[in-house]
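Dear colleague,

As promised, here are the two records you asked about, laid out in our usual form so they can be pasted straight into your sheet.

NAME FIELD: protein one
SEQUENCE, THEN STRUCTURE:
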Amino acid sequence: MKIRLKATTENLTKLISACENYLISEFSSDDGFNLLITAVEEAFVNIASYAYKNETGYVDFEIFRMDNNRVKVIFSDRGIPFNPIMFNSGKNVENNLDILIPGGLGIELIKRSMKNLRYKYINEKNIFSFEAIREKSK
């Protein structure tokens, strides 16, 4: 599934709804993908908040099934070049979340909970992807 949205926090609900609907259509449920939904939310909010300075741009979002328990998401935008993988969220994150710089907690969450994070800047476009593995039901 692909969707293009204006990079505004007002569109977060549309993105999350589209993502949940996709998971339900592919897996008959969105259960087990809670961390993915949170990571998608964090990545989108960071793009909406920081990528375009005083302008409004667009975010392209893609999600697709890789196998029975894994999906991949790809965000792309034409905002300021920014590599979230290389971003240093703050010193001593393990012990003190209060010292994180803006956007740092969300990026830290994505780094810790998602797999196979990739970033590239090609043709004036940020492309950030990661994979989620479905959590086991309890």
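NAME FIELD: protein two
SEQUENCE, THEN STRUCTURE:
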Amino acid sequence: MADDDRDTIRAEFREAVNMSASELQEWLQTDESQAVGQKSGGSGESTGHESGRRIVEILHKAKDDLTDDDLAHMRKVHGYVQRHLAQEPAKEDVETSRWRYSLMNWGHDPLKKK
């Protein structure tokens, strides 16, 4: 993969993920985090929750240690966050909404100011 592509993916990932590794790790331990998202494969863990664990791992890596699989997941995270942000519910419902909780599983808190 070209360095320019890698740089673009990293920049888009940083734009999408506005939670720190420790914030995300703490969030993933909550009941709210574990209650949202689509579950597949009978594992009991949602796709977003699994993604959140992977994001924590990626956030702990140095940029030179990122694999092609990491970069593919980073691209997936950016795409998910962008699509999901476009589906924002009524403002008064956002703080405790499944929409927000799902985004937070993917490392983005829509109420957090950058």
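A couple of things worth noting about protein two: The chain is about 60% helix and 0% strand. Residues 3-34+45-105 form one domain.

Best,
R.
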